[in-house]
């Protein structure tokens, strides 16, 4: 049975009289800091030194008190860890861990480093998670519109007896309980996220690329293949989200499309490969490969990026946006 929390179920009181430090002022950090401040929470920012990052100056320009990460950790009761995931372990070790004292709360925005033991907080602090299910600009945009972004909360370690209440108060301050927040585990948040990235993003992008490549190889004009491979999908995703996939297939697209979707779609998807990737993710193999890739300086990604940027599809896309609009 899913446990969903909404505004009426959650109090922001666990944050009253407390200082919340947002550590890392990037995509999520900026949005969550602004929303929490607008929810009347005392928010400060912790960033890398000004010579390494423009974030400190940006946070000050946005009206926040901004400090080094070590100083923000000392001043805060609750820390929202909004650093890029691979950057977290060395910064945690050097600046956060030495300045943690009993009763503080570490609130992560992705469970990866805790789940795989790369960061092991002391048992005297709460280790929780709050993740809004959208990029930062959308989290902010929805909040300003009086709405919120669906999210999740989890507790890995409850040192003070009210760790979940604190995680939920953070979710409320950021606006997510306006939509609904589901309780889950660090394991499911992390593995679910990694699974989705591999299957959905990886799979959908590969499908678009293959659709383009096969059409061009068979003599289709590249602009036409590009429009088919990306534009047509873009235009129907919102409709499916609004009315439901079945309504879209049965009533909002052509009968030819319905026949194509129902009869050929399953042939395109390799169900066994999806299940195998799920098992690999559960076994921690994706996490191991990613940590190794990062620690080696991302050689595989550099090579894959170079070849992808030169592809005919990318060049067609650039021309397409200029010639036919965004
Ligand atoms: N982006 C999303 O849509 C999204 C959605 C859900 C959850 N999350 C989670 O939110 C957390 C923050 O993600 P994000 O996307 O907001 O990260 P981000 O904007 O890419 O980076 C956040 C901050 O990390 C620091 N940073 C980035 N690269 C670094 C490097 N190479 N070395 C040292 N520090 C570095 C910078 O800190 P300074 O500000 O100090 O320069 C930066 O502002 C992650 O745990 C992520 O999984 C993100």
From TrEMBL:
Residues 2-184 form the KARI N-terminal Rossmann domain. Mg(2+) 2 binds at residue 193. NCBIfam families: ilvC. Gene3D superfamilies: 6.10.240.10, NAD(P)-binding Rossmann-like Domain (3.40.50.720). The keyword Amino-acid biosynthesis applies. GO terms for molecular function: isomerase activity; ketol-acid reductoisomerase activity; metal ion binding. Belongs to the ketol-acid reductoisomerase family. Its EC number is 1.1.1.86. Keywords: Amino-acid biosynthesis, Branched-chain amino acid biosynthesis, Isomerase, Magnesium, Metal-binding, Oxidoreductase. PROSITE patterns: KARI_C, KARI_N. The keyword Transmembrane helix does not apply. Pfam families: KARI_C, KARI_N. GO terms for biological process: isoleucine biosynthetic process; L-valine biosynthetic process. Pathway: Amino-acid biosynthesis; L-valine biosynthesis; L-valine from pyruvate: step 2/4; Amino-acid biosynthesis; L-isoleucine biosynthesis; L-isoleucine from 2-oxobutanoate: step 2/4. This is Ketol-acid reductoisomerase. Mg(2+) 1 binds at residues 193, 197.
């Amino acid at each position: 049975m899913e446990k969903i929390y909404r505004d009426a179920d959650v109090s922001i009181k666990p944050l009253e009289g407390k200082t919340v430090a947002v550590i890392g002022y990037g995509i999520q950090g900026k949005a969550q800091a602004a929303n929490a401040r607008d929810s009347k929470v005392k928010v400060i920012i912790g960033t890398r030194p000004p010579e390494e990052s423009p974030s400190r100056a940006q946070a000050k320009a946005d009206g926040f008190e901004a400090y080094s990460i070590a100083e923000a950790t000392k001043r805060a009761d609750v820390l929202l860890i909004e650093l890029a995931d691979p950057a977290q372990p060395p910064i945690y070790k050097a600046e956060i861990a030495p300045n943690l004292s009993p009763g503080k709360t570490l609130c992560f925005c992705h469970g990866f480093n805790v789940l795989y033991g790369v960061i092991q907080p002391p048992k005297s602090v709460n280790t929780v998670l709050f993740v809004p299910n959208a990029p930062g600009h959308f989290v902010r945009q929805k909040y300003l519109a009086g709405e919120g972004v669906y999210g999740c909360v989890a507790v890995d370690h409850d040192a003070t007896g009210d760790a979940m209440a604190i995680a939920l108060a953070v979710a409320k301050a950021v606006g997510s309980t306006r939509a609904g927040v589901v309780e889950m585990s660090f394991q499911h948040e992390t593995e679910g996220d990694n699974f989705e990235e591999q299957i959905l993003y990886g799979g959908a992008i590969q499908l678009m690329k293959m659709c383009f490549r096969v059409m061009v190889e068979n003599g289709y004009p590249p602009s036409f293949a590009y429009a088919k491979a990306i534009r047509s999908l873009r235009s129907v995703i919102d409709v499916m989200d609004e009315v439901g996939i079945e309504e879209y297939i049965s009533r909002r697209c052509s009968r030819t499309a319905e026949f194509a979707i129902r009869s050929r779609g399953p042939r395109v998807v390799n169900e066994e490969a999806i299940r195998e990737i799920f098992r690999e993710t559960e076994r921690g193999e994706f996490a191991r490969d990613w940590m190794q890739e990062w620690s080696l300086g991302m050689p595989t990604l550099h090579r894959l990026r170079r070849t992808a940027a030169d592809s005919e599809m990318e060049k067609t896309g650039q021309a397409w946006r200029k010639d036919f609009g965004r």
